[in-house]
């Protein structure tokens, strides 16, 4: 049987005294896309950020339970957080390229690693931009500022930046919510093509997007994981009334 690449066990997360994750246990499998859905404030982004310790950047956060990657708890004191965030890369809602050229954005992590020759970096930059389906848009402007690109192109360059350091898992927090439908469609197709090599977890408010691209879907409500199952099951025959109400637009 396939083993999960990430397992959360009974994760509780508090901002100050406020409990925003109330015991989340979830397995994420290799070469699958998992969608996290639920109303605003239900804890989806917080759970996503707990998978590569992005919550550590915020004060006043307490987390209990465990998040295991291949049987090691990432919250163990010995975890190297820089390495962790390379293995588990993240793409945010607003495209956030650095104010450098397209090339420098994608080469950034590789240059920090100091493991590659200039020729190798050139090749990885090209391969990553191709995998992120933005090469044709930017191949003639690699040395122009990434900030001069459209929002959709910037977001795909940000995805290329994550791919360049060869993560195992890619976390995406509403990556298309700031984009037009054509750019969103390109990103959806790209994510489907990346599934063969990566494990993908995506927070989305777009039910159509979740049903089009994900293999499994988790429905969050008020810090609880109400239901987690194959996407078809969640959308066609949900087991819980709350899930049914949410996906059929009765609340949220
Ligand atoms: N830095 C923070 N400090 C205090 N409370 C926070 C912080 N970040 C999030 N919260 C609270 O935690 C709860 C869960 O937020 P979270 O962003 O995970 O929800 P979400 O389901 O992703 O919502 P959305 O869909 O609106 O992004 C919310 O009540 C939110 O107000």
From TrEMBL:
Q: What is the originating organism of this protein?
A: Holzapfeliella floricola DSM 23037 = JCM 16512
Enumerate the GO terms in the molecular function aspect.
ATP binding; ATP hydrolysis activity; phosphate transmembrane transporter activity
Record's NCBIfam families?
A: 3a0107s01c2 (TIGR00972)
InterPro entries, per the entry: AAA+_ATPase, ABC_transporter-like_ATP-bd, ABC_transporter-like_CS, P-loop_NTPase, PstB-like
Output this protein's name: Phosphate ABC transporter, ATP-binding protein
CDD domains recorded for this chain?
ABC_PstB_phosphate_transporter
Q: Where is the ABC transporter domain?
A: 6-247
The record's Gene Ontology biological-process terms are: phosphate ion transmembrane transport
């Amino acid at each position: 049987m396939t083993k999960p690449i990430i397992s959360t066990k009974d994760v509780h997360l508090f901002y100050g005294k406020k409990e925003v994750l109330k015991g989340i246990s979830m397995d994420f499998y290799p070469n699958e896309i998992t969608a996290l859905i639920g109303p605003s404030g239900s804890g989806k982004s917080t759970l996503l950020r707990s998978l590569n310790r992005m919550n550590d950047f915020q004060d006043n956060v307490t987390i209990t339970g465990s998040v295991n990657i291949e049987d090691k708890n990432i919250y163990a004191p010995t975890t190297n957080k820089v390495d962790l965030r390379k293995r588990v890369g993240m793409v945010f809602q607003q495209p956030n390229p650095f104010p450098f050229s397209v090339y420098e954005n994608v080469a950034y992590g590789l240059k920090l690693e100091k493991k590659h020759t200039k020729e190798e970096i050139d090749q990885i930059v090209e391969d990553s931009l191709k995998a992120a389906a933005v090469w044709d848009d930017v191949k003639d402007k690699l040395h122009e500022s990434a900030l001069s690109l459209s929002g959709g192109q910037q977001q795909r360059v940000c995805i290329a930046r994550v791919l360049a350091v060869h993560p195992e898992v890619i976390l995406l927090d509403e990556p298309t919510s700031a984009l037009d439908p054509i750019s969103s469609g390109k990103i959806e197709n790209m994510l489907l093509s990346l599934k063969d090599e990566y494990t993908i977890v995506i927070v989305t408010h777009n039910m159509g997007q979740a049903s089009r691209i994900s293999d499994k879907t988790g429905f969050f409500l008020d810090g609880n994981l109400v239901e987690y199952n194959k996407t078809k099951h969640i959308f066609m025959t949900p087991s819980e009334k709350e899930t049914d109400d949410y996906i059929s637009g009765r609340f949220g």
